[in-house]
TrEMBL record:
Its EC number is 2.7.1.11. Allosterically activated by ADP and other diphosphonucleosides, and allosterically inhibited by phosphoenolpyruvate. ADP binds at R21, A22, V23, V24, R25, R154, G185, A186, E187, R211, K213, L214, H215. This is ATP-dependent 6-phosphofructokinase. It comes from Bacillus daqingensis. The active site is at D127 (proton acceptor). HAMAP family: Phosphofructokinase_I_B1 (MF_00339). InterPro entries: ATP_PFK, ATP_PFK_prok-type, PFKA_ATP_prok, Phosphofructokinase_dom, PKF_sf. Signal peptide: none annotated. It is an enzyme of class 2 (transferase).
Length: 319
């Protein structure tokens, strides 16, 4: 009987539990034995694996975080660490590993594959920073969390007639700022993918004030620049005080939205079926609502799709 292991790795994302549930239940459906690995690759090295059954993943579809826990493992980056992990898999006769995480975790999966372990990746990260897939698990929930914050901040921003800079997660990818900003009606959105000048934002604030606009919400992806520096320059340009709100880790938690639960469930089932079909060193993705199976290396080389339409929309609608 084929034995498969599943693990979650890197930063946690809402919907990881729903993905593990789907992997476990799909594996059992196809009569595989399924093992859960605690704390990602770190747990694999330590042999922290446990056989799971249908009840092990009961009552978790709606919960944020990951019941398997997650970790970043420096030891797994070394050949010695990986050998220990592979020895643990061989000891239990496990021939395939399903890795739920971001690009780093996929590189880890690829490394396991080179040692003869069949691997399939499922994309889960709130950043939506993987170019080969339209969406990653956790992104929609994070957008909604940020959106709630934007709505609340808008009230106080209007009452005090102030500009508010909201810093959100996104080191290399501004999707969280862009989607939540567009949905929340933010006046300005600053993302790492697109250059900006403080001058153009200051002009927009002044223009808004002229037509009686009370607030100005500026969404800033953390990788696009320092909130304090932008604040200082803006204040110097406009002569107006502004506020900064850093949303931080609240963006990573919370119950997954329906969209994330569905995406996670679909991708979990697809991963097991891809494994059954013999796919290896492959990642599951979604392209125009169709699930895809792509080679990891090829997937990670793909650049992000251009979100030009949303940027244009914000420019036109947020005058
Ligand atoms: P997030 O997008 O949330 O940061 P991630 O999966 O990209 O998630 P990383 O910390 O980059 O998170 O990677 C998770 C783990 O994957 C690392 O701690 C390491 O154990 C493993 N890993 C990353 N890159 C490699 C690599 N090149 N070779 C082997 N293992 C790797």
């Amino acid at each position: 009987m084929k034995k498969i292991a599943v693990l979650t790795s890197g930063g946690d994302a809402p919907g990881m539990n729903a993905a593990v549930r789907a992997v476990v239940r799909a594996a059992l459906y196809y009569n595989y034995e399924i093992y859960g690995v605690k704390r990602g690759f770190e747990g694999l090295i330590k042999g922290d694996l446990e056989q799971l059954n249908a009840s092990s993943v009961g009552d978790i579809i709606h919960k944020g975080g990951t019941f398997l826990k997650t970790a970043r493992s420096k030891t797994f980056m070394t050949p010695e660490g990986r050998k220990q992990a592979i020895d643990q898999l061989h000891a239990l006769n496990i021939s395939a590993v399903i890795v739920i995480g971001g690009d780093g975790s996929f590189r880890g999966a690829e490394a396991l594959s080179r040692e003869g372990i069949q691997t399939i990746g499922i994309p889960a990260t709130i950043d939506n920073d993987l170019g080969y897939t339209d969406f990653t698990i956790g992104f929609d929930t994070a957008v909604n969390t940020v959106l709630r914050a934007v709505t609340n901040i808008r009230d106080t921003s209007s009452s005090h007639e102030k500009t508010t800079i909201i810093e959100v997660m996104g080191r290399n990818c501004g999707d969280l700022a862009l989607y939540a900003g567009a949905a929340g009606g933010a006046e300005s959105i600053i993302v790492p993918e697109k250059p900006f000048t403080v001058q153009e934002i200051a002009d927009k604030i002044r223009k808004g004030r002229t037509r009686g606009k009370l607030h100005h919400i500026l969404m800033l992806a953390e990788g696009a620049g320092s909130a304090t520096e932008i604040q200082q320059k803006l204040e110097a340009e406009t002569g107006e005080k502004s506020r900064i709100t850093v949303l931080g880790f609240i963006q990573r938690g919370g119950d997954p939205t329906a969209a994330d639960r569905l995406l996670a469930s679909r991708m979990g089932l697809k991963a097991v079926e891809a494994c059954r079909d013999g796919a290896d060193s492959a990642v599951i993705g979604i392209d125009k609502n169709d699930l895809t199976v792509t080679n990891i290396d090829e997937a990670l080389k793909r650049g992000k799709k251009d979100d030009g339409e949303l940027t244009r929309l914000t420019t036109i609608l947020s005058t």
